[in-house]
Amino acid sequence: MKHYQRMLKKLIGFQLHQLCVYGQYLNLDTDHNGMLSKAELSRYGTGTLTSAFIERVFQECLTYDKEMDYKTYLDFVLAMENRREPQALQYFFRLLDIEQKNYLSVFDLNYFFRAIQQQMKAHDLIQCGQGDTVVSILIDLNGFWTYENREVLVADNNDECEV
Ligand SMILES: [Ca+2]
């Protein structure tokens, strides 16, 4: 019985999540044409994805007249929400490997890092409330790994709390 309840809870949670994802899609589609443009997708989440990354999504993923349909959006959301899963990492690797060499070169890393650099100002660093973490990641290898481990711990806790 408990097993059945847990399954039902999971199924309801999954369907609620699907509804949420579709609701987000409709919210992002501000011109109501049923598709997402680059500008519309750039408002995804906290609206802080770099234009360099959004550009790569539209270059590599299936689009129609440079607009994204719900199926492509769903693949994008699944990857974004499951960044630790091999399938998601393959999705991102395809986007990060700009010249399709099957490895990430300094050129690829610089391309994405520059975009972060260009978008971050001293004011952002102070206002974001995570300035110390950002500085630690950028200047100290130990800081980077500490942050990485913190993320894993938070994700593990979230797994246990999920519906
Ligand atoms: Ca639209």
TrEMBL record:
A cellular component term, taken from the record's GO annotations: spindle
BP GO annotations: cortical cytoskeleton organization; microtubule cytoskeleton organization; regulation of dephosphorylation
Protein name: Serine/threonine-protein phosphatase 2A regulatory subunit B'' subunit gamma
Upper lineage: Eukaryota, Metazoa, Ecdysozoa, Arthropoda, Chelicerata
Alphabetical keyword list: Calcium, Cytoplasm
Subcellular location: Cytoplasm
The keyword Calcium belongs to this UniProt entry's keyword annotation: yes
Gene: ppp2r3c
